Amino acid sequence: MDPYEIEFIGENRIVNIIPNFSHDKIFLICGEFGPFRAGLPMNVPLWLGVMLKQKQKCRIVAPDWMDIEVLENIKEEEKKSRFFTKMPNEHYMVEAKLILGTAAEDIPRASEIKTIIKDIWDIRMSKLRTSMDALMKTGGSYGRLDHLTMMEINSVKPLLPQAMDELHRIKMNARKTMPVQSSLNSAVSQPGGSQSIL
């Protein structure tokens, strides 16, 4: 999957909006939404909420996890643990990017939230790079990393398979040369072996 596909999946997450207009129920391929009543909160897919916000037709309500205290706790836990912690939202980066990019004025302390989310991403990426480095150095052929999101996995996708292929190629070449090397050693070590080589 490429980043655009992951973003497309993330855009289908349900968010809470407060419309400033009234309208009957709308019927879409992904489901039906509405009726829309001015001032009454309702749930819609993220992409629809963003579209309505861009047309100044609603306010987007911050998801529960998009809170300074919640995010600070996640950041601290992520820093302390050598393992990846479970994120409150599988598509936290997509949701944060779209909501904070489109409706920053609707989110209390939006700039601080943006900074903490970036910090969490950086910590997790650093852990991921360290894990990959350890995997390569130990010569492992697979690794298990729990609680990674699709976007985080995708960030190492261009590098990891290629590096693993190269590592496998080096191992296979080493195996091919080992029997040749051991047969040469045994020939030299046999009595009269040095004469047969000369």
Can you walk through the features of this model?
The chain is mainly α and 198 residues long. Helix content is 57%, strand content 10%. A hairpin with a 2-residue loop joins strand 2 (26-28) and strand 3 (31-33). The radius of gyration is 27 Å and the shape is elongated. Residues 192-198 have low confidence and may be disordered. Residues 2-61 form the DNA replication complex GINS protein PSF2 N-terminal domain. Pfam families: PSF2_N, Sld5.
List the helices and strands and how they pair.
Elements: H1 3-10, E1 14-19, E2 26-28, E3 31-33, E4 42-45, H2 46-54, E5 58-61, H3 68-80, H4 92-102, H5 110-138, H6 150-156, H7 160-189, H8 193-197
Antiparallel strand pairs: 1-4, 1-5, 2-3
What is the gist of this entry?
The chain has 198 residues and is mainly alpha-helical. It has 8 helices and 5 strands, in the order αββββαβαααααα. Helix content is 57%, strand content 10%.
Features:
two-stranded antiparallel ribbon; elongated; single chain; 8 helices; mainly alpha; 57% helix; 198 residues; 5 strands; three-stranded antiparallel sheet
Question: Unreliable stretches, pLDDT < 50, 5 or more residues?
Answer: 192-198
> What is the H/E string?
HEEEEHEHHHHHH
Question: Could you tell me the number of beta strands?
Answer: 5
Cα distance spanning the termini: 60 Å
Could you tell me the mean pLDDT? 86
Cα-atom Rg, whole angstroms? 27 Å
Helix content: 55-70%
What's the assembly state of these chains? single chain
Sheet with the most strands: spatial strand order: 4-1-5
Counted by DSSP, the helix tally is 8
Q: Report on the biggest sheet.
A: 3 strands, antiparallel
Beta-strand portion reads: 5-15%
